[in-house]
Amino acid sequence: MANYMTAAQAAALIKSGDRVYIQGSTSIPETLVSALTARAAELRGVEIYTAFAVGRREAPYCAPGLADSFTVNSFFVAGNIRRAVAEGRAQTIPAFLGEVPSLFRSGTVPLDVCLLNVSPPDEAGWCSFGISADLATSAAECARVIIAQINPRIPRTFGDAVIHISRLDACVETDEPPVELPAAEPDTVERAIGRHIAELVPDGATLQIGVGGIPNAVLDALKGHRHLGLHTEAMTDGVVPLLESGVIDNSQKRVMPGKTVACLALGSRRLYDYMDGNRSLVMKDVAWTNDPQIIRRNPRVMAINSAIEVDLTGQICADSIGTVIYSGVGGQHDFMYGGALSPGGKTFIALPSLTGRGRSKITATLAPGAGVVTTRFQTQYVVTEHGAACLWGKNLAQRARALIDIAAPEAREELEREAVRRFGPAFLRLRGGR
User: Fold this and answer.
1) In the chain, where the domains are located
2) Distance from C-alpha of 338 to C-alpha of 294, rounded to nearest angstrom
């Protein structure tokens, strides 16, 4: 029998010193989080673990004055905890997202409690995690206490994102819609980047694509392609038109052919409705979706990711602005590595040439304290609105030349001076072209 109770009764199962995982994506169990935070005065030393999550508000357990009650660690710095991390009220644990489940399973990061947001049970008693299988699968496997919101707004998906109601220690009925993240409309710069990438994507490719204006521009530019596949970390609204039109049919994939594969979803109600009950879509544990040895088995993997800045040697910073942690590594490394190993695979770092404040995103050197998410040894293509630079097989001076050619025109003269200073005659010989 399912143990139905109020949110306050469920939160009372959490004790001081417990280690608690909170489900993420756009599926944070907000009712349970509120009930847990309401007990702050009674609790001491509760360790909270989160990852990529899109919340309606800043995480309440990070509020000033709650440090004695809650110690907050996240494997990704999302918007709901970004300010708390910057101010030292929360911390981040550097880890490839695909490796976090092994931290749980090995006991390196032990878990006592897992908070979930799941669909109502079907006739056989199975509930679905819906839009967040990523870390929730391994967290539910490892925690000794599982507390779940039973929520009819969560789409029912298949694969690893299921749990039987008999495994739930506490069930709290809610009617709480997941956060919606509608597709960002690409601007002129993003559309130019999308076209440059689409020109390099062959028919029959398997896509991994991120979130935001640039990925949506890439997807829009792929409408004339055929027999594409999708094996990705995040499902977004942008893939739905390609799935519905048959551009993505998953027919050329070798890993789960005929199936769309992801581990989380970020989108609008349109996406969640498309996912609900859709057996052509499989939601998998992130340890599986992001395993480079699985990714590489698909032909022509196209891994498309973004960055905060790129230096002239091809080092990619994607998680920090100088010393300030802004996000995390996510699956970028996993797919850049797996994509490079795939037969006919290509990997892309896509970014506008300028920041919103007019500073070049292609820089002579990374900002002091910036983290290197993708090393210069792994970078293949860097793409801005001014073109695509292939760095693969090029020496450092040749890389600098290729990157300067796609930098913002107003930044090129200064970048050339820095390249001459750094690479000397080897760069001067290349001034006439790449």
Assistant:
1) 7-173, 188-428
2) 8
